[in-house]
Here is the input.
Amino acid sequence: MQRGSDRLSVHRDDEMKHELKGLLQSGHPTRVEEWNDPEPAADDDPDVLPPGARAPEEDERLRLELARHLARTAFPGKRSDMLRVLRERHAPDPLVELVERAPEDRTYGTVRELVDALGEQRG
Here is the structure.
């Protein structure tokens, strides 16, 4: 019998492997609880434009896209918190790259504050 610093028993380890088998083979979530999965991007979703290329009226579209991927629990938080949540929820790469340009030294209380900070970077 092997004794180590394993936190899980052999049986629980096998259960977890069985639970993840579908995800690992298919490459997408296979759980019944669809509400827990982020909504995938649709074919007709607008592209997220980088700062400088966005018109002021497109800030609202960016705010909605960020709100779709960021949970309420991400706020208040710093840029690193926002990036972690976006990556965990498999947000589109252009959206993640856009948030990477936000100032790190600020704490963002809402999506609006984050979008405003990105607009300041643009101007």
